[in-house]
Amino acid sequence: MTVALAQDWRLSLLGAWRLHCGNDAVTVASREQRLIACVGLLGCRHRSFLAGLLWPRSSDTQAAGNLRTTVWCISHSLPRLLHTGPDTLELEQSVRVDVAALQLHVARMQAQPEGQIPDGYLDHLSRAELLPGWYDDWVIFEQERLRQLRLSALELMARQHLAAHEPGRAVIAAISAVSIEPLRESAHLLLVQAHLAAGNRAAAVRAYTMFASRLENELGVQPSNQLSDLVAAFRPALR
After folding, report:
1. What is the pLDDT of residues 193-236, one digit of tens each?
2. Cα–Cα distance, 203 to 207 (Å, whole number)
3. Residue among 238, 16, 3 nearest 130 (CA)
4. What domains, with CATH codes, occur in the chain?
5. Which of 7, 52, 81, 180 is most buried when burial is the number of CB atoms within 10 A of its CB?
6. pTM metric for this prediction
7. What is the pLDDT of residues 143-189, one digit of tens each?
């Protein structure tokens, strides 16, 4: 492969693991994928930390040897992707990582809650699942962290649309949050509020009833009074 400049590398971890050099997809072995994903998500880390994280069932000596071999393979087959310090590893600064871009966009949205939401951003947040099918402990932790970030961003979008008197868009954002976490009451609260803002009382009661039933069946608890009070006036008439 032609030696790549650092800025030519693009690492995608949302939806599936993918690495591109310019416009070309690059095939990478599983062991190398995991190291690249790890430093792509966690940033600069000490070699001993990475060895223990990626090979937790190996001895320290074996894990260190596995790491050295993996770093050698990456350095020779994927030049200028990995920055190797004396004791640390990280991606070159110019490597573009889709998770980092998503986190930056969410941070900007949270810092400017009155700003314009880009077209297509809701769909991107709804489908931005981190490394599906990966079950390493460290990946599961990062998956949950990103899931919470997506949920908070989708709820923020729903609130923004409600404040802008766009209940239809608020419904879609709230439904997206509910689909990620069906037992998250704050998302259901926004969904009911959005239906009511759109004048869809039956839809609001239906959303509440489905959530209340699921909450009772799975956790044995009832929705909060705040949520129940939103539809209390409509439920008898709509049964």
Report:
1. 999 999 999 999 999 999 999 999 999 999 999 999 999 987 66
2. 6
3. 16
4. 6-96 (1.10.10.10), 112-238 (1.25.40.10)
5. 81
6. 0.86
7. 999 999 999 999 999 999 999 999 999 999 999 999 999 999 999 99
Structure token digits, residue 109: 């949205």
How far apart are the C-alpha atoms of 54 and 66, rounded to whole Å? Answer: 9
Angle subtended at Cα 108 by Cα 107 and Cα 109, rounded to the nearest 5 degrees: 90
